[in-house]
Amino acid sequence: MQPRELPGFYYDVEKNRYFPVKAPIPGSSSSTRLSKPPSPLKPGNKICKRIGIRTTKLLRSRELCGSVIPFRKGKCKFEEECLKLHASQPLVWKYQETNRIGDGALEQISTNINTVDGQSLIDVLLTGGVNGYLSLYEVAEAGHHFDYGVKCMPDRVWTPVMEKQTEYSKAVGHICRPRGASLAMQSSISSIKMVGKQSPCTIADGSTIQHVLITTLGSETTGGSVYVLDLMRPLDLNPSIPIMRNRMHEVAPFDCTIWTADCNCKRSHAVIGTNMGAALVNLETKVSSWVCRTRSDVLSVQLDQSGNVVLCGLRNGAVVTVDVREKQGGYFARLTRHRVPYPSHKISEASSRTVQKFSKQWFELKGKIYPASTFFLPSSISCLRSLQLYDQYFLASSMDGSVKLYDHRLIQRGAVQSYEGHVNSHTRIQLGVDPSERFVFSGGEDRGFRIWSIKSGELLFEDEFSNSVPSTLCWQQTQKFSGELDGTYQYGEMHGLSAWIGSEEGVFRMQWR
Predict the structure, then answer these.
(1) Which of 117, 224, 273, 415 has the fewest CB atoms within 10 Å, counting from its CB?
(2) Is the pLDDT of residue 328 over 70?
(3) What is the pLDDT at residue 313?
């Protein structure tokens, strides 16, 4: 039986339900009017105005007006304003002796360790440096297991200005790198990814990660490589047993630069972005094949939840949608050739240049591409980040400072939301999203760190706590998110959440209490 056609809706066969053609921004409701993105802050103004909104004022407004409270730009929900207020007041610590260890990639995972009392679950932080060192640190909270190695203590570097310092005297736990938990790779670490991504709403307490995908950038003499770190066997407290070396396995070497990588949720395949295009790597058979070939470097890749489609962010500013399912004809099948026209602003920029290679009005690429889903940002793509709770939405940033939210179904209509204030010109800087997917985080070339509301685009936090660019970011994966897909959230759910931030200066930890 064919589904009925409803005006303003389309029917998804796989999910067996209708969806509105023009969906709301993640976290919003049909009755909530979106506020305009904030204007850029004046130079030197590092404290956002939202910090001036006191909790007592919000509580008084709720007592007088209920859950929907009046604001200068319209009515807002009490819970949403409390979450924004809380997100705008993090605490930040910097760990000693961590310079140049996490400026390439960061990832926190849970794994097992053998102790005298049996197996125990611990949190570990994997760090990858531009200098090529891959390290494993135990994240010590209530206690720690490794009594040997390098212990890095935290120093508080930022405290909310509206609160008393004495209220935040308790520091976060230290991190410890055991002996044999650092490994020198052949070149810079370009990415660290959990094999088998988990949705923020399905992360269960006590779950462990068994494999980690690691890629190296490559150098002038050697290309990049894809590795898998095996954590199926519990870690051992014996200092004579090297933790990293015996667990690292090379999956696929490449004769090109590997900029980035992503894994599907089935733990079977990974997609890498290189200076020659995007390649699909089978992690079980170690067979790789090209899914997209282009002369413009693929600087960012992001698989969707099905694992069938990957977004590729190119150096020329294009975001291309590629089908990575097996080609008809098998491994040796030829990729389809496409000519993608540049947007008008790209052509006008190219016409003013004297170099002939920039005067073309289109660029060529090969693969199973969806041309109608291709769009451009003003500059090279810095990061792509899909939302898990709202699988049709993704964030994209480029090296001109643009950060935007897009809907897969409405690509040609442009961005759904924009986020002002980001500073970038040439650096690959990661975007981070909190487990509830209400806030987006990013560092900047001005060494500032910013937090925006995904729904409204409002800049909630802006401050400088690092002497170098905060370029890498990951979330504490052991936190369990209890929010629902309908956009309802409980006040205080940010309490206890932590984010790790990496820069050349060191590793930082941002926490909300």
Answers:
(1) 117
(2) no
(3) 98
Q: Cα separations (Å) of 384 from 49, 413, 438? A: 29, 18, 17
What are the tens digits of pLDDT across the range 118-170? 888 889 999 999 999 999 999 987 556 666 789 999 999 998 765 545 455 57
Contact 274, 298 (CB under 8 A): yes
What letter would DSSP give residue 386?
E
Q: How far apart are CA 474 and CA 462, in angstroms?
A: 18
Considering 134-143, 339-348, 351-360, the range whose residues carry the highest mean pLDDT is 134-143
Contacting residues for 397 by C-beta, under 8 A, at least 6 apart? 381, 382, 383, 403, 404, 422, 424, 429, 431, 442
Residue 168 C-beta-side C-alpha neighbours within 13 Å:
20
Specify the long-range contacts of residues 165-174, CB closer than 8 Å, at least 24 apart: 168/91, 168/513, 171/93, 172/93, 172/141, 172/498, 172/509, 172/511, 173/139, 173/140, 173/141, 173/142, 173/144, 174/95, 174/140, 174/144
The whole-angstrom separation of Cα 304 and Cα 301 is 10
Distance CA(353)–CA(42), nearest Å, equals: 33
Closest CA to 101 of 175, 165, 197, 170: 175
CA angle 128, 282, 368 (to 5 degrees): 105
The Cα 33–Cα 116 span in angstroms is 58
- Is 145 in contact with 138 (CB distance < 8 Å)? yes
| b/e burial code for range 143-174 (CB count within 10 A of at least 16 → b) | eeebeebbbbebebbbebeeeeeeeeeeebbb
Contact status, residue 431 vs residue 454, Cβ threshold 8 Å: no
Q: Report which of 444, 457, 360, 387 is spatially closest to residue 38, judged by C-alpha positions.
A: 457
Selected residue with higher pLDDT from 427 and 267 = 427
For residue range 380-391, list pLDDT tens digits in order.
999 999 998 888
Nearest 10 degrees: Cα torsion 346, 348, 353, 355: 60
pLDDT averaged over the chain? 81
Residue 484 in this model has a pLDDT that exceeds 50: no
- Give the Cβ contact number of residue 207 at 10 Å: 14
**CB 272, CB 261: distance < 8 Å:** yes
Highest mean pLDDT among 140-144, 354-358, 460-464: 460-464
Q: Rounded to an integer, what distance in angstroms lies between the CA atom of residue 490 and that of residue 79? A: 7
Phi, psi for residue 333 in degrees, rounded to 5:
-65, 145
Higher-confidence residue of 148 and 369: namely 369
Q: Is the pLDDT of residue 407 over 80?
A: yes
Q: Say which DSSP state 12 is in.
A: E
> What's the pTM value of the predicted model, to 2 decimals?
0.82
For residues 490 and 493, give the distance between their C-alpha atoms in angstroms, rounded to a whole number. Answer: 6
Distance (Å, rounded) from C-alpha 483 to C-alpha 465? Answer: 30
In this prediction, residue 57 carries a pLDDT of 56
Encoded tokens for 445: 């070339």
| SS3 at position 449 | strand
